[in-house]
Description:
- By secondary structure, the chain is mainly α.
- Helices cover 78% and strands 0% of the residues.
Amino acid sequence: TCISDIKESNEAAGESGETISGLEAAKLIFTESFCELLGVIIASLLSYFLALSKNTPLELDAWPYVASSAFVPPCLGFYFHSKKLGCLGTGIDDSSPPRQFPVVVIYHTIVTFAFWFMKNGIQQCEDHVNLVNESIKDFQRMDKKIKQKQQLREKAAKKRQK
């Protein structure tokens, strides 16, 4: 972890004065965990987006979704950049555990696909309902025309009989 790397660096520096101060250590830790911080922000925005879509139908252009989508590329950039450099910027040795891929990116992908598929499914259902309604109207018009033709035939038959 970053804290243990800082402690090891300070112990190795010893009395030479090249130690990492508390403020500098906090900055290094914050820089190292920026990918996770962005992940929390993305997850919060996606949760807010999903909570909003419960009350009203939303599109994928709602501001919480757009903001979370804008944070995904920097999150991936910080993940891949810090994966190569490590906490102190000296590179990562083979003994350190590998960093986990940001799961929030997978969460964002799942939400995107699920929302897109649901939106398409709802649109198809609405199209089919409209098609059925139009068919019902067509059948009603056809019934009226058939009744009118029957009435005209009956009138014509009565006139012929007279």
